[in-house]
C-alpha cells in the first residue's frame, strides 16, 4: 500500500509520500512515489502516485516523453504544458493511454487498473494548484474549503487533517501535520512504510522546492512521534470524567 | 455505514455503536445496533452488528429463537448457551443459517452477504470475553495484546485506540477513548451518525450492564468533542519546529 498527502495552503504546498511498494508481503521494496519536474524560474511541478506501480511508472514516463492531445493533435510534456490545469489534463490523458495499452491484458490476468495521482505546483506568473487524477483520467482540484488531498491508505491519517488543517495553516505547521498524519497511518497499517519523501514548496519560489528524505533514524521525526503520542495520551486524561454514575 | 467498537479491558467491557443505517443517502434511519441479552445473576451478553441490516436482524432473531447445533442436534439460544465461546459459535451458526436461507437470492440481486458482529459478555463463574464473528460464521477473540475490536467504518477511529488503549486502561478512560474514536469517525465519514449507544460492563457485575444513549445534545459528549479538538490543535503547535532550513 501507499499513503500520500498533499496540503494546499495559502503559503504553498506540502507533499509527503511513503516509499513502500509491494506485491505481497514477501516482496516489499521501496520506490520513489514523489517526483519533481522543475525548470527553475519557469515551473515547479510535483507528482505523487498510488496504485499499480506498473501503471504509475508508465504514466510518469509518458508525461516526460510526450502525450498527444486528443483534441489538438499536438504532443505536450510536463515541461511544455502552459498551465497546471493543462498539466492535470496531460496526466489524465497519459493514464488513459496506459489503459488503452495495458488495461485489457491486466483485466485478463485479474489485475485491476488502479492508479491515483496527486499533482501540485506552479508555473511562472500563475497560481499554485493541487489536483488529484483518478484511474479514469478525470480529476478534481483542492480548494480553500478542502485544503488537502490524499491517495492510497488515507483513512487512518484523515482525522488529524480534518481537525487541524485550514488553508491558513503555515508551511511549518503543515509539515508537522502531514508527518502526524503519516505517523498515524504507519502505526495502523504495516504495509505503509518508511522512509518517506517530503516536498515543501513556498509560493512563487520557482527556483525549486525543498526536499527531504525522512528515514527511520530521522531525529526530528522520532521526536515528533514521541511527543505526539505523549500529547494524545495526556489529552484524553485531561478531559473530565462523565458524570453518568457508571 | 456503521461504526462499532468494543474494548476488552481488565476491568470489563466498553461497547459503543452508532445507530445510523442507510440504503442510499435518501433513505437514512436509526436502528439499534447494540443489543443486550441479560439474565441478572446468570449472564450478561451484548452484541453489536455491522453490514446488511436484513442479515443482522435475522441473526439476532435466530439466536433468541434457537439455532440447532449441527454436531449435537440440540437447539440452543443466547440465553441457554453454557459459555461465551458457545455463544460465539451460536452466533456463527446463525449467520450460516441466514446465508443458507438468503445468500443465493441476495447474490442474484447483486447484494453482498456482508455482516460483522461483536459479541461480548460474561457468564456466572466464568471470565469476560469479547469476540468478532465474520460473514462466514467463523470468529476471533480479543486478547490482552489486542484489547479492542472494531467493525464497520473502523479506520478513522483506529489511530487513537492503537496509541492509547491497553488492557490496563480503566473503564472511565475506556469510555472516553471509545467516544474519541467514534468522534473521529463521525467527523470523517458522514454516513456514520448520532445518536450512539454505550454499554459499560464491570467484570463480575452480572446484575446487568450500564447503558446510555448519547444524542447530539449530550452535554458530556459535546464537551469531550470540543476539548479533544482543542487539545489536538494545541498538541501539534507544542511540537518544536523542524530544523531543516526550509
Automatic annotation (TrEMBL), chains A, B:
Q: Which InterPro entries match?
A: Ntn_hydrolases_N (IPR029055), UCP009120_prtse (IPR016545)
Superkingdom of the organism of origin: Bacteria
Q: Which organism is it from?
A: Alkalisalibacterium limincola
Q: What's the protein called, per UniProt? A: Peptidase
